[in-house]
Amino acid sequence: MPANLLQEAQANKSAIIANRRSIHRNPELAFEEYETAAFIRKQLAELGIAYREIANTGTVAHIGSDGPCIALRADIDALPIHEESGVDFASLNDGKMHACGHDAHTSMLLEAARLLKRRERELPGVIKLIFQPGEEKLPGGASIMIKEGVLKDPSPLAIFGQHVNPAAVTGEVGLCSGAMMASCDELYWTVGGRSGHAAQPHLTIDPIYAAASIITQLQSVISRQCNPFDSGVLSVTAINGGFAANVIPDKVEMKGTLRAMNLDWRELALESIQRQSSLIAESMGATCELTILRGYPPLVNNEGLTELAATTAKKVVGDSNTASFLPKMWAEDFAYYAQEMPASFWMLGVRPPDVEEAPGLHNSKFYIDEDALPVGAAMLAGVALERLALC
User: Fold this and answer.
1) Are 247 and 192 found together in one domain?
2) Are 24 and 91 in contact (CB under 8 A)?
3) So what's the pLDDT on residue 3?
């Protein structure tokens, strides 16, 4: 059956591409996806698939009417990036771009919906389609969708999702059992001091020196407090302070992120970062206020579902194009669904075979090989059918 699904999707490739390009031309940022949502709902209505609006710009649809439920999810938002891909269907919205492939995710789920709708009478259950807003921005659209009941009426037994991967060749399906992606928390420091003449530092409290000490000393949280068999990353990504070469400023502001694979260590690390930041600043006579915006939890794939997805992938693309995916310290709000039920999330290669290295995710020159779209659609429809068949 999965092989047949791929053949059907390939026969409809021009329509899948047209949908993807339409969404690509009109990118909308997280929680602002009004036209994108309208486009999705129009496509579903034309397929005769019932849907309802949720979380403002989110959409949930159902195929089938009774029995066990399996969910499929795609995210729909774009990024605040000016597109430089050079494609003739580039973004028409300046400063906004589908640089993470959510346009592809959406078009593939719409095609999976078409494939599944054609088989609706044969379904031994219900397939729930989730078109989710706001993956790129805290608190994450998944968390809001869950709060508003997307996983109820009916409640799925399992959920599947996928993400394009420009590092892998077109059509390769990369799978990872267990922890696949990290938690993601945003950190915002304000280091306060006392300004004065740079030639008289003894009459000032230098927040730049204090901030620099905080940056370097906090790396001990990773090197000395994290179990070497766990994974953690602390990155300070922005520092702003001062305005003249001969003036020590009043304050310095910094931004950064903490990534972790272990939830318990994540909590300990955040506590340690808070405590050390204050103590380091205090030891220099300065002050430090740290604001923590808690983000997504680690994404942990269910072993059994991932084995099922691998079996489906081998039927769709063959053994040679079914691969292992090494965990990354990226973050993905699909993790919220995985906390609620068994879940599996895989990566779909979109790098053209004749290209050795393609622009990465969140890059202004990002592009995909659209030959991958039918593969992703067949994978989504295939795993849903394979999982339902086990009920």
Assistant:
1) yes
2) yes
3) 77
Dig out the tokens for 296 from the structure. Answer: 């997504």
Tell me which residue has tokens 């992120």.
Answer: 257
Q: Is 76 exposed, middle or buried (0-12, 13-18, 19+ CB in 10 A)?
A: buried
Q: Taking CA 384 as the corner, what is the angle to CA 173 and CA 48, rounded to the nearest 5 degrees?
A: 115
Cα 31 to its chain centre, rounded Å, is 14
Mean pLDDT of 297-318: 97
Domain-ending residue, one of 245, 266, 293: 293
- Domain with 48, as residue range(s), is 2-181+298-389
* Whether residues 176 and 212 fall in one domain: no
CB atoms within 10 A of CB 340: 14
Q: What is the pLDDT of residue 65?
A: 87
Q: What is the pTM of this model?
A: 0.94
Could you tell me the CATH number of the domain that includes residue 226? 3.30.70.360
Q: Which residues contact 311 (CB under 8 A, 6 or more apart)?
A: 386
Sign, CA torsion 7/8/11/14: negative
CB 51 within 8 A of CB 44: yes
Q: 349: helix, coil or strand? A: strand
